């Protein structure tokens, strides 16, 4: 009887010892991994420093964010009536009420020094749900301004289902805009820690999209789409928007570090082509001809640029 008790006691002791050793191993492994990551971060920062790549106004606090799911919104009958009453505009709603195309009867002037706050006032005064959009970019070479729709407090970058694209003439006057709108967002309850800003810049550095001497002038978090689901719902992931030399924007998935395509010319060409197709197949209206002519000229310009690049 005593031997059985002693045997059981030995088994329990060895079991406790095994558990203890496993925990010791895991702690050492974790410490090693942390040390490796710290060394890796230091190495990356040193590489950036050696190549004279600087990051201005780098976010210091850890950022956590959720992914969201959103479906494109169809403009309701009431919203279409509001659009028809917009002052100084000829408006058409097409593509099964998903796309607004509007021409200003009298061009709306802007200046090169228009601030973000002034842009906000302009779109709130002239566009439906203007308060839901935020100034994104002014491409002065192509005379186009983008306003990104905001969901969960963050902008959604270059998404054809939630964007206002404003076309300017040679006098920096707004002559035409198109608008699409996303519906209410379904926000995932779990927030995930985003990759460190230095790591996001490192992804661009390793893919040679930033070069020695570059300056990261701004970093902010928004959303970028993944592949749309079959029911038309789009999944948007938190994304670092990295501005380099105040000239070019890059987008890095903020949870997995994947670099998204940032070909704005391709986005604009696709957008203009889609709008042209919708206009040409819609009902005939008196002011459609001038819009088609303007957009076709824009397409010719974009095609010529792609051939020379």
TrEMBL record:
One of its GO terms (cellular component) is membrane. The keyword Protein transport does not apply. Pfam families: YycI. Residues 40-255 form the Regulatory protein YycH-like domain. The keyword Nucleus does not apply. InterPro entries: YycI-like (IPR018604). Keywords: Membrane, Transmembrane, Transmembrane helix. The chain crosses the membrane at residues 9-26. This is Regulatory protein YycH-like domain-containing protein. It comes from Cerasibacillus terrae.
């Amino acid at each position: 009887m005593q031997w059985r008790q002693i045997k059981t006691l030995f088994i329990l002791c060895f079991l406790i010892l095994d558990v203890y050793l496993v925990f010791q191993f895991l702690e050492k492994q974790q410490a090693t991994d942390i040390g490796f990551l710290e060394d890796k971060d230091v190495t990356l920062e040193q590489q950036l420093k050696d190549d004279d790549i600087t990051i201005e106004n780098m976010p210091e606090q850890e950022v956590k964010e959720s992914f969201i799911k959103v479906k494109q919104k169809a403009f309701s009958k009431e919203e279409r009536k509001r659009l028809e009453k917009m002052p100084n505009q000829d408006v058409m709603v097409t593509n099964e009420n998903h796309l607004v195309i509007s021409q200003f009867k009298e061009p709306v002037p802007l200046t090169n020094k228009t601030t973000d706050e002034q842009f906000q006032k302009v779109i709130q005064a002239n566009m439906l749900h203007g308060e839901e959009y935020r100034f994104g970019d002014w491409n002065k070479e192509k005379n186009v301004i983008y306003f990104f729709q905001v969901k969960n407090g963050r902008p959604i970058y270059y998404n054809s289902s939630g964007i206002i694209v404003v076309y300017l003439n040679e006098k920096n006057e707004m002559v035409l805009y198109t608008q699409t709108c996303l519906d209410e967002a379904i926000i995932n309850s779990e927030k995930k820690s985003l990759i460190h800003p230095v790591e996001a810049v490192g992804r661009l550095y390793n893919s040679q999209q930033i070069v020695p001497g570059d300056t990261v002038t701004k970093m902010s978090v928004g959303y970028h789409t993944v592949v749309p689901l079959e029911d038309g719902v789009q999944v948007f992931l938190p994304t670092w928007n990295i501005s380099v030399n105040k000239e070019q924007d890059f987008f890095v998935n903020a949870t997995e570090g994947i670099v998204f395509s940032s070909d704005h010319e391709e986005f604009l060409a696709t957008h203009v082509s889609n709008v042209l197709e919708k206009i040409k197949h819609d009902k005939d209206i008196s002011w459609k001809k001038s819009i088609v002519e303007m957009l076709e000229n824009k397409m010719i310009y974009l095609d010529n640029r792609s051939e020379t690049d």
